[in-house]
Design goal:
The protein has 15 helices and 15 strands. It is an alpha/beta fold. The strands form six sheets. It has a four-stranded parallel sheet with strand order 5-4-3-15. The chain has a three-stranded parallel sheet with strand order 10-12-14. Helix 1 crosses helix 14, helix 5 packs across helix 15 and helix 6 runs parallel beside helix 7. The longest helix is centred in the C-terminal third of the chain and has 24 residues. It starts with 8 loop residues before the first strand and ends with a helix.
Length: 430
């Protein structure tokens, strides 16, 4: 049973003398767990339409498990990797995905020219997955948080930094929460229109302010309750639009005073403080139905000292056991200095630790090769990797099904621009 880290309801004050406003989070107490459940002999588990806590149905997960059980090591390894590629040639990304059987790719600013080229890239990657015999969409993700981290600048609508959501909720919760949800919903629809299936957002880190050089305005707030409300609202917006969101950077990056892109940085305080502050927004995201959580590369002294969080089994245990998260645990980019300077074969180590999906290895081909070799040698337990791959496949089944049920409106750009303006205005009212 997961302990209560944050209450199911947050009472946020709109200011001195104002009445408290209740911001509720959906409870998942009665949602079926994702683990194996005995079925009667007459039941086909692949037809079970019971929704799992993180999105897919039990039937979709059962179908995915049966599918990946028949794959060889190369296909299995590919399905747990979201590749990195250089340049702007759509054919290069597609060739890598097909040759290595990758789940998909992450598109960065380096890969973007203009809208037409982005659409060509996402289409080419999806075609590569189809040509590889898979009937699910590719994992095509992008860091599109708003503000300074917006890799589709000049292509997609520009939203203000995520800190504006916290400002809006703090100023007027009744207005701030729906404005945040609408910003996420329209961002997701616009990304889907461009061919994306994942967003590497929202940021759930509670910033400590000026001493936080990496997260800063990417965080919704310095207040854990306001941050929790913002993240919960955003996750619900992404879910409603049929795009896979990625709550990040577990178990919290906002109190880290160094940059993990450059090297291993410490989160040096006790477990009590971690639970009371940093885990609160992640707990809210799980309650809101977060499909994926990104694991940071921070050295969390209270849990797993001396190693990046993404490489540490106790970190995944904290996410699974303490927060009750059953969805996809994805690493932060494996090309970051915190990993490349500390860990040999990080793709293998992350899977051993509990990761389900490996994001942007420094060298996608080398990472794929190392996972295949570890599977064949027995270093990596095949059942562990099969379960990870099955969850990714099931997630893409959810994305495909939900997207079909929620068509992208013809005026999606106008809706996104309106939502961006509304968030900016609401965030400045405090």
């Amino acid at each position: 049973m997961r302990p209560v880290i944050a209450g199911a309801v947050l009472a946020l004050s709109a200011g001195a003398g104002a009445a408290a406003v209740t911001v509720g989070f959906p409870t998942r107490a009665d949602v079926e767990p994702s683990g194996p459940v005995a079925a009667s002999p007459k039941e086909d588990p692949k037809k079970d339409t019971t929704a799992l806590a993180w999105g897919p149905t039990r039937g979709e997960l059962a179908t995915a498990r049966e599918l990946v059980a028949g794959w060889d090591e190369k296909r299995l390894a590919g399905q747990v990797i979201v590749g990195r590629y250089h340049g702007t040639d759509p054919a290069k990304a597609a060739k890598m995905v097909r040759k290595l059987h990758l789940a998909g790719v992450s598109v960065t600013g380096e890969n973007v020219v203009d809208e037409a080229q982005v659409r060509e890239t996402t289409a080419a990657v999806n075609e590569a997955v189809a040509a590889d015999g898979r009937t699910i969409p590719a994992v095509i993700g992008v860091d599109q948080e708003g503000g300074v981290v917006s890799h589709l600048r000049g292509v997609a609508t520009e939203f203000p930094e995520f800190a504006r959501t916290g400002d809006a909720i703090e100023a007027k919760p009744r207005k701030g929460v729906p404005v945040t949800t609408e910003a996420a919903r329209t961002t997701a629809l616009e990304l889907r229109d461009l061919g994306f299936t994942w967003a590497f957002a929202p940021v759930a880190d509670v910033t400590v302010g000026a001493t936080d050089p990496t997260i800063g305005s990417r965080s919704p707030s310095e207040d854990k309750k306001i941050a929790a409300a913002a993240v919960s609202a955003a996750v619900q917006g992404y879910n409603a639009a049929g795009l896979v969101s990625t709550t990040k950077h577990f178990p919290g990056h906002g109190a880290v005073t160094g940059d993990t892109h450059l090297g291993l940085q410490e989160l040096d305080f006790g477990m009590k403080k971690l639970k009371r502050r940093d885990l609160v927004p992640f707990d809210a995201a799980v309650d809101a139905g977060a499909p994926a959580v990104m694991i940071s590369h921070v050295d969390v002294k209270a849990v797993a000292p001396g190693v990046p969080a993404s490489m540490a089994p106790p970190i995944y245990d904290l996410l699974r056991d303490d927060l009750g998260f059953e969805g996809i645990a994805i690493t932060d980019s494996l090309g970051m200095g915190a990993v490349t300077t500390t860990t040999k074969k990080p793709a293998v180590v992350a899977l051993e630790a509990g990761a389900d999906l490996l994001l942007m290895p420094a060298n996608s081909r080398a990472a794929h090769r190392s996972v295949v070799k570890a599977l064949r040698s027995g270093r990596l337990d095949r059942e562990r990797v099969e379960e990870a791959a099955a969850k990714v496949v099931a997630m893409q089944m959810w994305q495909q099904r939900t997207a079909e049920a929620v068509p992208v409106p013809g005026d999606v750009r106008k809706q996104a621009e309106k939502a961006s303006e509304a968030l900016s205005e609401a965030g400045s009212e405090g």
